[in-house]
């Protein structure tokens, strides 16, 4: 039986987490939620992996909670509700907090639908890349629930601004990849979201380990900074700590090293000029 979460390493420094319930558009079941928790915990303790990519198998990124699958409370007879229901709710929601807390940058490669909890998970990532088939929707309020779930009331206003976030959450309207790019919900559109995400991941792996991790931490922390002075204080501490690493000295030496001069262009031969002229003018003199 296939795992509901596949983890691959195209490079030792890059982990690709693929939600693998394609027949359900990768909807969140109890098993998938627990598998994600286990893998996020493993990544938090992994000093080799430097960037994580999150994507979905098949036609969708994640369609949200699988409403047809039994919750842990229902599977046990439902005698502990609402206490157990709250714990299950918190367990799902804590996925976004774990992504947020990871030292590694996390890139969401969104192929197809990112609805409800799927949008919440994508919004918790540090970078979002959309495939051309991507579609985003908060969806919660359409299901008779409150519109705010799995962190979207925190993440969306910081990504697209408060006004647009209120619109998306209250109306639960769907937006396609082009509109998501205009709104700033994603930063790139590509024919293959996963290939583009892996290209970004390789770029990030070329930077210093401490510098990359501290950049993510400072960016998120300073979204809630109380003042410019507080933000500068955190930046200053991070830069001084980074400057003490050997990585900074190595990177600086590469930047300062003079590149090899480009090869000098040789003048075209008479034959080459003749061919060029014939291509442009059909050989007419």
From TrEMBL:
SUPFAM superfamilies: ClpP/crotonase. InterPro entries: ClpP/crotonase-like_dom_sf (IPR029045), Enoyl-CoA_hydra/iso (IPR001753), Enoyl-CoA_hydra_C (IPR014748). Its EC number is 5.3.3.18. Keywords: Isomerase. Residues 254-273 are annotated as: Disordered. It comes from the Bacteria. It is an enzyme of class 5 (isomerase). CDD domains: crotonase-like (cd06558). The keyword Isomerase applies. One of its GO terms (molecular function) is isomerase activity. It holds the Pfam family ECH_1. Belongs to the enoyl-CoA hydratase/isomerase family. This is 1,2-epoxyphenylacetyl-CoA isomerase.
